Amino acid sequence: MTLLTPLGIDFGTAMLIAVLLPMAGAVLLVLAGRWPNLREAVTLTTAVALFITVLHLLGGYLAGEAPRLVLFDVVPGIPIAFKLEPLGVIFSLVASGLWIVTSLYAIGYMRGNKEENQTRFYACFAIALGAAMGIALADNLLTLFIFYEVLTLSTYPLVAHKETPAARRGARIYLGILLATSIGLLLPAIIWTYAVAGTGDFQVGGILEGKIDEALLPILLGLYMFGIGKAALVPIHPWLPHAMVAPTPVSALLHAVAVVKAGVFTVLKVTVYVFGTDFLSSTDASVWLMWVAAFSIVFAGIIAMTKDNLKARLAYSTVSQLSYVTLGAMLASGYGVTAGALQIMMHATAKITLFMCAGAIYVATQKTELSQMDGLGRKMPWVYGAFTVGALAIIGIPPLGGDWVKLYLVMAATDSGEKYIIYPLILASLLSIGYLLPVVARGFFGNLGDRAEPASQFNEAVPVEERIRAPRLTVIAPVITAALCFLTLFLVGPLKELIAPLVGAH
């Protein structure tokens, strides 16, 4: 018997609502553009409504519902379709929940920094969330690919938001790399899969075993992993640091809410539902990509240490941290999939905290370089306190949830007989200490000085001590997400139970 949500609708319809609600919100945002307060009320209302819808879907899944909704066939036997499954539930919860906090932050940031084209910003943001929901709930490769491309196109105006030459160049690189990889690599991989398997539907255990020559399997896997450009695997990663020309709320969207999480979620989904971890493990087809991911983790961490620009440092940190998910998937074990799913949740809350703090610093001081930020922690203790929590979560210091990811990756490496992968993981943890803790140390213990500087927004000299005040919402939001970094520790158990059908005893 099909259960109904508390709103009296079936769960298949609820999935469609989750995809279309942000799109409808985007239309309302454009209509409300002349009235900023109404526009921002629409943003928050839509975000909250989406999160409630996703919670209903979670409740349905926990009650045993696994609805499938077919909209229409693109060609006979290949439909646009949605289905509720564990990985999609996790991604949709992370994206919809953090959209609420990001919206609060964006209101403070966009107003405090007096950004132009705010209506376009909020509307594109909403479309991007709708695309993320489509990716999360996709039941086959075609549906996923369509929403994957919608996500790319809807975030291009966000990256180019400031419309400066640097912003336009960064946006062109962003769009060029993501479209080139998805059309040039991902799409051929999808067509190849349909050709050999006769289907692109996601199935637990995969759809390729016995359908493809095992000698060709590493090639097809490589097309997928590099074609999913949003996962930012080296050398496909340059779009991510170039996109840092965007406003900080966009950086939060790129790094935590939708874009890169859509990438690594797709990596996990393809690994589990197209290839199957048992098939990959039995063929060793993923071993070479496992080492590519390990190299990406270390390489990006080294580059992060060289960056003085705080957002650039955090961007390369993201490249490194994303590869943890790819590594977990390529280890092709239950522990690896568990590590990847945990990393999606843990990294989202921690990295959004770090970017929000960087944005709060910028709005208050117009400073972007780490070398300019000595002593600011004593003037902005809440912001730097939140940054400290996010940094410790990324590093993996207990009791924050990030340590569980590294633990499960070590267990996955041991379980898969790839013990040497443990050494890059240790090095990556040391590197994360090296590129994150200096931000905290310089903020709290560096010499701020007492010189007067021009106030960026008022064109008059004001003593530094009197003007380091970020808009309230840009402080409240990262404090909330910093608290979530602690909460994720208690979500490890429920998340493991949620994905248990995919990983067996692990």
From TrEMBL:
Question: Where does the protein end up?
Answer: Endomembrane system; Membrane
Alphabetized InterPro entries for the sequence: CPA3_Na-H_Antiporter_A (IPR050616), ND/Mrp_TM (IPR001750)
An annotated Gene Ontology molecular function: oxidoreductase activity
Question: Under which main EC class is this enzyme filed?
Answer: oxidoreductase
GO cellular component annotations of the record: endomembrane system; membrane
The superkingdom listed in its UniProt entry is Bacteria
- Membrane topology for this entry? Multi-pass membrane protein
User: In the UniProt record, does the keyword Transmembrane occur?
Assistant: yes
Q: Where is the signal peptide?
A: none
Q: Which residues cross the membrane?
A: 12-32, 44-64, 84-107, 119-138, 144-161, 173-195, 215-240, 252-276, 288-306, 318-338, 344-363, 383-401, 421-441, 473-492
Q: Where is the NADH:quinone oxidoreductase/Mrp antiporter transmembrane domain?
A: 138-430
Which terms are listed as keywords in the entry?
A: Membrane, Oxidoreductase, Transmembrane, Transmembrane helix, Ubiquinone
| EC numbers for this chain | 1.6.5.3
Q: Which PANTHER family match?
A: NA(+)/H(+) ANTIPORTER SUBUNIT (PTHR43373), NA(+)_H(+) ANTIPORTER SUBUNIT A (PTHR43373:SF1)
UniProt protein name: NADH-ubiquinone oxidoreductase chain L
Which source organism? Candidatus Phaeomarinibacter ectocarpi
Q: What is the lineage of its organism?
A: Bacteria, Pseudomonadati, Pseudomonadota, Alphaproteobacteria, Hyphomicrobiales
